[in-house]
Amino acid sequence: MGRSLNLTGALPLTAVERPQRNVVELLEKSLVRLPGMSAEQLAGLRAYSAQASQDSGRLRDMDGIKKPDFDDVWTLHRDAETEGPTCRSVSELQRRLSLDWNRNPGMKALVDVLTREGLATPENLSHLERIYRSHGADVAEKVAQTLADYAGHYRDGLGDEQKQLIADALHDLAVPSDINQRNVGSCAATAAQMKLAIEKPTEYVRILTDLAKGENTKLLNGDTLRPNTTWRGDKDDRRSLSCKIMQNAFMEYAGGSYNSKTDKDEGLSRGEQEDLLEGLFGDSDYNNETTGLFTDKDDLYSYVEDDLARGRAVVVSFPHHAVTVVGIDKRSTPHKVIIDSWGAQYSMSVEEFKKYLQAVRDLDDSGWDDRKTPDGQLTIVGDH
After folding, report:
1. What predicted TM-score, i.e. pTM, was given to this entire model?
2. Most-buried pick from 83, 126, 135, 323 (CB within 10 A)?
């Protein structure tokens, strides 16, 4: 994050990606060697060390143990699934997107699958159109080809589960705000799932289809992600098929052994969430920022705004809950933060957001992480 930290009587230090952890190490190993320090100063700094240890320990706090309701502090911003279809037929899809099947073989292959399997519904076609418009022709072509290849894996035809998987994949990429944990304490995995759908749709659909086939898949950091099918046979699990597949695999990868039948109220620690993001996005520069000696809530908010200004969604922690921040609305006063959680988009004032903000999983860019979103505008990623 590029901060310069000054301790009275100590040489300047440069903050690195886990400031509390490194400050604790410094205080434990180096304070006794600082010149000219009185016993009173040393005692004071040891007190700071104890506080830093406590602050660093917050990174081990669990998100997902409880399922809190934040309806008293946020309001519904948008529920995309209440909006009607934009496209009702294959011919309308082709016309609206000016598709040339010769130049869009992946789209053609998927449309053929949808038509053959009775999946060419207004909802699915509208989701495919939204993916094309949101991510561009190249991404839509790759997504469509991956789904067509997934269908081709089942040479005897698609069963109900395979058909549902294709519909869920289109839904998730078109309306990531509607990705939902339902009655399972997998909020941290859900938040990461939303972020992946928003930022890396081709990776999302590759991982999803591999897992759905019962196959291990490689993450961008080289790790192996394995299917976790403990959701099967659980009639009480109200998540969509894609959410069961993705969230269970994410929970096991980041947190170890996981059974969604018996561990419904188990979550991921904030350090485990950082590990999950680094695996999914292949970037080791994710930070897990929490309030402490050198970081207050204004700092945490600035990290959120910096990532949004760079076009990235941000996974943050509220008390016992992880959410995905997707936007900042500066068109009116007070400014508002836009959040994806529980299958919809919500908004809350910046000041209310700061009150509940406990930790941020942000990406440490080169230089200062202090970009701002434009005044007078809505800055938002994902569906809107």
Report:
1. 0.84
2. 323
